[in-house]
Amino acid sequence: MFRFLLALFLVVAASAKPPNVIVILADDQGWGDLSMNGNRDLSTPHIDSLAAQGASFDRFFVQPVCAPTRAEFLTGRFFSRTGVRGVSTGDERLNPDERTLADVLKEAGYATAAFGKWHNGTQPPYHPNDRGFEHYEGFTSGHWGHYFDPWLERNGELFKAAGYITDDLTDRALKFMGENTGGPFFCYIAYCTPHSPMQVPDRFFDKFADKKLEMEYGGFPGREAHTRAALAMVENVDENVGRVLDSLKRSGIADNTIVIYFSDNGPNGPRWNGGMKGTKGSVDEGGVRVPCVVRWPERIKPGTAIKSVAGAVDLLPTLAAAAGVSVGAEKPLDGVNLLPALEGKAETPQDRLLISVQGRGERARCSVRSQRFRWVKGGGLYDPMKDPGQKKDLTAEYPDEGKRMRDFATKYLAEVAPNLKNDQRPFTVGYSPVTWLPARDGVPKGGVKRSGRAPNCSFFTHWTKPSDSIEWHVKVGSAGRYEAILHYTCPESDVGSSIELSLGDAKLHATITEAHDPPLYGMESDRSDRGGSESFVKDFKPMRLGEIDLPEGEGTLRLKAIEVPGDSVAEVRWIELRRSED
Fold it and tell me: Spans of biased composition, class Basic and acidic residues (predicted)?
């Protein structure tokens, strides 16, 4: 009897332990990019297994683009309330006063770490280390220019990763999980694929290079290579999900570990997506409906199907409830706790409305989703279950429902209107020992240009004259002396330019005395043409400019040339500012 009671006690004690939490977020993967959803051109057995062994959401909604969805997942609030406006040049920053899921779980005793694409702010206090994550490895930008042996960041310091980025990030996440098997831990794995650049190892792409595709991929002439690469990239993601699941099984912690897998927006190109209207960037069903599967063997029955509409905003309250902790937010949440539905105890509210927004001001595109309908601003009212292509406007048949959804959108857009204006927030300096100011956040002046149209992973080039400059709108939070480091390239023929870094009356002068002229690379690994939008990459060299005394407050940090003896000054990727100890 004693042994029986002891065993019973141990079972109860074990089940009372807070669950580990793993959230895996894919980038630009559509609802139709899984074999479980009917795509016969690829195989995703590991992601599919999460649904078979746990729960799947039939109608799970996010935002049309990356950073807004990430903000909603992290805060449980519609992104327009959180400071996030877009995807680059500061628009992606999540306000420091927003409480994140990592904050909630860390305060409850969880070990917390994030791996991969952050995309909600670079400089502290926007950096993941300031948002509840004790450990971070990845990149904070919206996309990265090269996926093989990439330069990444570890808690504010650059390092060179090894191998394909998705495999490498998984290695790092597995190491963290292995060091915290005693739990509880929160591991956020934010993959950057199948987002472009369309790069994937040969052993995945070779399967699709000449494969006859069965599904309908939208009729985009010339985009076949993009589609094939995307399918290969999804299969690579699936393999890495399998590695995570295998690790949980080997460690004996699978039963009390919650694993969630979802994507941040619709597909980023021509792919089969169940006939739904819209792709990434669209507020239509196909742009914001994504897969979401959840496994928690101790609490969720295999094959659970959630028919109620749900979204990324629901994950924070759901995971907080699963962990048995209070959200403790001063700001109201837009998400709801889905745990009762996942456990088969109750349905989510049937009359709730979810909103999707893309763009700025009065021209912002918007749609609202109820359990049955999608209302589209400037469009109409549709029943996506019966009409995924949104071809039949039902406004006349259901005027009351159309009005309810339109009124909801009007009220919400009026409420968040100040947050949909151009972002005037400065980039923060001195809120931690090291501040990185990338070209992405700078403004080119004169003849200076970006290396690609998309700012995220770009660098500055065509800096040729003293009248040219590069500027960052900054706010120095802590006055003091800072070591300034320029990450640059410069051919031997252009060595010798004298440059000035200034903020108000504070000035620092230096001369470029050493050549560094590495090749541009990335194109050799692309499976489809980038089209000039995303930059290729170079390996930049750090050059110590000296020390500068920066005053507290807001101003323009300006980099310019005093003398240019050659054809150009330099190419610039980063300015690094390190606060002096004294």
Answer: 524-537
Mean pLDDT of the chain: 95
- Output the domain CATH number for residue 187: 3.40.720.10
Asked if residue 10 belongs to a domain, the reply is no
Q: Closest by alpha carbon to 195, among 523, 528, 567, 499?
A: 528
* 6 part of a folded domain: no
Going edge to edge, which strands form the sheet with 289-290?
Answer: 289-290, 60-61, 310-311
Q: In angstroms, rounded to a whole number, what is the distance separating the alpha carbons of residues 35 and 40?
A: 6
Q: Which residue type occupies 439?
A: A
User: Do both 239 and 331 map to the same domain?
Assistant: yes
> Domain check: are 155 and 89 in the same one?
yes
pLDDT band at 456 (very low <50, low <70, confident <90, very high): very high
Domain tally, the chain: 3
Short-list 559, 545, 539, CA closest to 489: 539
How far, in Å, CA of 569 to CA of 561, rounded? 7
Q: What is the pLDDT of residues 252-290, one digit of tens each?
A: 999 999 999 999 999 999 899 999 999 999 999 999 999
First to last CA, the chain: 67
The answer to whether 372 and 308 are in contact (CB under 8 A) is: no
Q: Domain boundary at 390, 405, 420, which?
A: 420
CA distances to 59, 205, 239, 368 from 290, in Å: 8, 23, 19, 16
SS3 at position 509: strand
Specify the residue for token string 């028919």: 307
Residue with the bigger pLDDT between 7 and 466: it is 466
- Give the DSSP H or E segment for 113: strand 111-117
- What are the angstrom distances between the C-alpha of 321 and each of 19, 90, 533? 11, 32, 42
pLDDT band per the 50, 70, 90 thresholds, residue 296: very high
489 and 385 belong to one structural domain: no
Residue type, 161: A
Residues 234 and 228: their CA atoms lie apart, in Å, by: 10
Contacts of 194 (CB under 8 A, 6+ apart): 26, 27, 28, 29, 33, 229, 230, 233, 234, 237, 268
CA distance 348 to 60: 13
Q: Is this structure's pTM higher than 0.70?
A: yes
Rg of the chain taking only CA atoms, in angstroms: 25
Rounded CA separation 359/365 (Å): 6
Residue 366's domain spans which residues? 355-420
Residue 202 φ/ψ, nearest 5 degrees: -55, -40
Residues 297 and 333 in one domain: yes
Residue reference for tokens 């500012």: 577
| The two structure tokens encoding residue 120 | 């909600």
Cα–Cα–Cα angle for 563, 568, 571, nearest 5°? Answer: 110
Residues 380 and 329 in one domain: no
